[in-house]
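Checklist before submission:
- one chain only
- standard amino acids only
- sequence pasted in full

Submission:
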Amino acid sequence: MVQPVYHKIDQQRWQKFSPREQLLHMASELNRADHWQYSDEVKFKAALERLLELIDASIDDRRWGDNRPMLWFLRDEIAKLYIGQKKTPIGYLYRAI
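Returned file contents:
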């Protein structure tokens, strides 16, 4: 059994990235989750966990300002996928960001 790897985002380092760069990092994790969604649940959930951490770190970044509701929406949709409440393909979220 694969042991989960827990990541801790360095908030100061994360905030050195522009919001655009932060969004690109989030998109990379979303792409990883999309790749594993139907083939490896452990890797799928690990990618979603990392994505949730990145979203949370971005929500704490003041530069997102009026765009925070988009991050809250994305976080809510990812959480639904994580707990299995939503079964739709991730691709629609990837295209949205």
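Reviewer check: The helical segments are 11-14, 19-36, 41-59, 68-83, 91-96.
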